[in-house]
Amino acid sequence: MARTRQYKKIEKNAAFSITRFFTRCFKFIGHFFSSVFKVFDRKLTIMVVPHSQSKPLTFQTNIFALIFGVILIVGVASTFFYFNKQAIGTSSEIARLQNENRKTLASLDELREQNANLLQTAKRFKDTLSQSLSLLGINQPTAISKASIQSSDLSSLFSTNDLASGSTQEISSIQQLTALLEGSIQPIEQIGKMLESQGTLFSDIPNIWPIRNGIGHVSMKFGQNEHPITGQWYIHKGLDFSTWRKGDPIVATANGQVVTAAFDSGFGNYIIIKHKHGIYTRYAHLNSFRVKKGQFVEQGDIIGTIGNTGITTGPHLHYEVHIGSEVVDPANYINIKLK
């Protein structure tokens, strides 16, 4: 029992100590706020004395009101400067956006002009293609269907209402261009197929320049000419090509088979190639051979080099084209004009 009483006594003492501690704390806090209130509640008199003989102005206030007023003025001033700075930044951003907008409008005008030029070029291309197809006898569509325009990738991005309102005139032009190009695909494919089927025919006919890379010039044309050695008039049965030097490569002007690779006192070293359709070509005054009799060659293959063997006044190539027993002007087959 004595121990229990002792515990109760200790509990009462602890509770009393805690209560006294909190009481003192609350008193201290109350005293502190009371002191602060007294300080801030002190009366102040502000007197404004003018330089003239007017009556002075007197204002009465306390410290709390004065501090609150100062804080309020500082806050208002800070807010004013902050929003003024924001307004200046906003004005700069608006000016920058306006400048970019002007540049964008200028680019848009240029784009519209280029778009119009492109559309005109496409129309001229289609007209030229139509004329070429007519000459080749290839059937072509008479008009571009509306479905072709509507099925294009660009048309799916814009509604018909936009086109009707005129707000997308450039898009309409692009759709027209797309339709023109789509309408040109099939005829061009037909031309490609025709050229592919006729490619062998073109390579079987001697129709290229007989010197590699198209160098040199025609030094004597086909027909009546004055002989450079005898000075007499005679019929020149080919074309003379000159590069003013020996050793430049000579190429076969069509697919064929070498039937002659020999020397002649007049032609010097010469080659004759047999082609299809009864066509023969002769290459004379060669410096060297690169093929032999019986060899098959393709158009563009090197068969020899320019020389001055035989009766010549300098290095050159004498080139002839024979159809059957007739000698023809080679210029008609290599698409050149002689003055």
Give a verbal description of the structure:
With 339 residues, the protein is an alpha+beta fold. It has five helices and 14 strands. Strands 3, 6, 7, 8, 9, 10, 11, 12, 13 and 14 form a ten-stranded antiparallel beta sheet that branches. Strands 1-2 form a two-stranded antiparallel ribbon. The longest helix has 74 residues, at 63-136. The chain is elongated, with a radius of gyration of 53 Å.
Distance between the termini: 148 Å
The Cα radius of gyration reads 53 Å
Q: Which consecutive residue ranges, at least 5 long each, have pLDDT under 50?
A: 143-167
Q: What is the strand content?
A: 15-25%
Q: What's the helical proportion of residues?
A: 40-55%
Q: Structural class of the secondary structure composition?
A: alpha+beta
> Number of helical segments?
5
Mean pLDDT: 81
The H/E string reads HEEHHHHEEEEEEEEEEEE
| Number of E-state strands | 14
Silhouette: elongated
Please give the largest β-sheet. 10 strands, antiparallel
Question: Would you summarize the structure shown here?
Answer:
This protein is α+β, with helices and mostly antiparallel strands. It has helices at 2-40, 63-136, 146-150, 160-165, 169-204, and strands at residues 43-48, 57-62, 217-220, 223-226, 233-236, 239-242, 249-251, 256-264, 268-274, 279-289, 296-297, 302-306, 317-323, 326-328. Strands 3, 6, 7, 8, 9, 10, 11, 12, 13 and 14 form a ten-stranded antiparallel sheet that branches. A two-stranded antiparallel sheet has the order 1-2.
